[in-house]
UniProtKB/TrEMBL annotation:
<dbReference type="Pfam" id="PF13499">
    <property type="entry name" value="EF-hand_7"/>
</dbReference>
<keyword id="KW-0106">Calcium</keyword>
<feature type="domain" description="EF-hand">
    <location>
        <begin position="41"/>
        <end position="76"/>
    </location>
</feature>
<feature type="domain" description="EF-hand">
    <location>
        <begin position="81"/>
        <end position="116"/>
    </location>
</feature>
<dbReference type="InterPro" id="IPR011992">
    <property type="entry name" value="EF-hand-dom_pair"/>
</dbReference>
<feature type="domain" description="EF-hand">
    <location>
        <begin position="117"/>
        <end position="150"/>
    </location>
</feature>
<dbReference type="Pfam" id="PF13202">
    <property type="entry name" value="EF-hand_5"/>
</dbReference>
<dbReference type="GO" id="GO:0005509">
    <property type="term" value="F:calcium ion binding"/>
</dbReference>
<dbReference type="InterPro" id="IPR002048">
    <property type="entry name" value="EF_hand_dom"/>
</dbReference>
<dbReference type="InterPro" id="IPR018247">
    <property type="entry name" value="EF_Hand_1_Ca_BS"/>
</dbReference>
<protein>
    <recommendedName>
        <fullName>EF-hand domain-containing protein</fullName>
    </recommendedName>
</protein>
Length: 150
């Protein structure tokens, strides 16, 4: 779990301890918590929190509901980030804009960078990413790897 999610879970556990021992909080308790935390919009924050995470719509949030909501929210944001990374990778490397990165384009990129062995650098990337070995990298192939390392 990310440090952000860890902090939210820690805050939620603190909120649960503060308001009751039933391992759930009501919307009024969330509003009070946000007010005491200095939020400018405690009612709006509580409404958003309950709309997003009160899965059984019983007017109470349990720690399990909050965890499930965080996982859903984090997963959606992660998928958006990966999509942006793939777009950025193609903007950087797809010289002819055909939505395929040809080995020549990758070699040219490394030559432009002044890499000592551009062909070998391109070959190493293609070895990892070009899973069907057709000498082009497609967005579909990029989705299957951690492109942040490139």
């Amino acid at each position: 779990m990310s440090s952000f999610a860890d902090q939210i879970e820690k805050d939620v556990q603190s909120m649960l301890k503060k308001y009751n021992a039933k391992d759930c909080i009501t919307k009024d308790e969330a509003i009070s918590y946000f007010k005491n935390s200095g939020s400018k919009f405690p009612e709006r924050n509580a409404s958003y929190l309950f709309k997003a995470m009160d899965l059984d719509h019983d007017g109470k949030l349990t720690l399990d509901e909050i965890r499930a909501g965080l996982i859903k929210e984090y997963s959606e944001k992660l998928e958006d980030t990966i999509e942006l990374d793939i777009d950025a990778f193609f903007l950087k490397h797809d010289i002819n804009k055909d939505q395929k990165i040809h080995k020549k384009e990758m070699i040219q990129y490394f030559e432009d960078l002044g890499t000592q062995f551009p062909s070998q650098a391109a070959e190493a990337i293609f070895k990892d990413i070009d899973t069907d070995k057709d000498n082009v990298i497609t967005p579909n192939e990029l989705e299957k790897v951690n492109i942040l390392q490139y």
